[in-house]
UniProtKB/TrEMBL annotation:
<dbReference type="InterPro" id="IPR029045">
    <property type="entry name" value="ClpP/crotonase-like_dom_sf"/>
</dbReference>
<protein>
    <submittedName>
        <fullName>Malonate decarboxylase subunit gamma</fullName>
    </submittedName>
</protein>
<dbReference type="Pfam" id="PF06833">
    <property type="entry name" value="MdcE"/>
</dbReference>
Length: 238
């Protein structure tokens, strides 16, 4: 789905989103409220330029429009893998973007992420995945690392990882598996405008991803381990 088609369905009340070099920014009307929009399109890799542009848009919203909700539209193949970006410290730029999202949340901004096409690797982690709540469309492609790359890094045979992915969502791509793990709060279908309005109205300040993962059976130990660390207790194997 193109971002223009998506915007038409999300914002029947109108929007002024502009695209420049695959970076999206602007505002839209949702149930009579103005929402700040930032995002990416055309599966663009996140290099230092787009990371800084997204961070600047978030900081401008925090400074000039306190409390305004922010919607991050996600379509990226991950961080840009170029020698130039690596030498300039792309990891620091990505970290800066993540910190800006976190700052907005701490300042009272509801930050919603929506994966409408691709969400891969660090480009997803420091945008939609770190938002107050993250959602996806059914046809979205989501993964942090493909199984072939995972096999090369972990030295576990790809055939074994493929076998594990059948039952364990940690190894498997796709919105349904990220929903099970709690990374996604929901998958939107049909009336996208109503889904967005409801998400903005219901979004809380607490990070409930670990609880959702435990409740849905996708991440059974994250919540107990975090609780044990906080209280000094022990985790019972399941």
């Amino acid at each position: 789905m193109s971002w223009q088609t998506l915007a038409t369905q999300l914002f029947p009340g109108g929007h002024d989103i502009l695209e420049r070099d695959n970076f999206l920014s602007g505002t839209a009307q949702v149930d009579g409220r103005t929402v700040a929009i930032i995002g990416t399109t055309e599966h663009v890799p996140i290099g230092i330029e787009i990371a800084l542009a997204q961070a600047q848009a978030i900081l401008n919203t925090v400074q000039e429009h306190p409390g305004r909700p922010i919607l991050i539209l996600v379509d990226t193949q991950g961080q840009r893998l170029r020698h130039r970006d690596e030498m300039l410290g792309i990891n620091s730029y990505m970290a800066h973007l993540g910190k800006c999202v976190d700052l907005a949340r701490r300042k009272g901004h509801t930050v919603i992420g929506l994966v409408y096409d691709q969400a891969l690797s660090g480009g997803f982690i420091t945008s939609g995945l770190i938002a107050s709540a993250c959602y996806a469309l059914p046809a979205a492609t989501i993964r942090v690392m493909g199984l072939p790359a995972m096999a090369r890094i972990t030295k576990v045979p790809e055939e074994r990882l493929t076998e594990l992915a059948r039952d364990n969502p940690v190894f498997a791509p796709g919105p349904e598996n990220y929903l099970r793990m709690g990374g996604l709060h929901g998958i939107w279908q049909d009336d996208l405008a109503n889904a967005l309005a409801r998400a903005l109205a219901e979004c809380g300040t607490d990070d409930v991803r670990m609880a959702l993962g435990q409740e849905r059976g996708g991440r059974l130990l994250a919540q107990p381990v975090a609780q044990a660390v906080r209280t000094g207790g022990h985790v019972r194997p399941t």
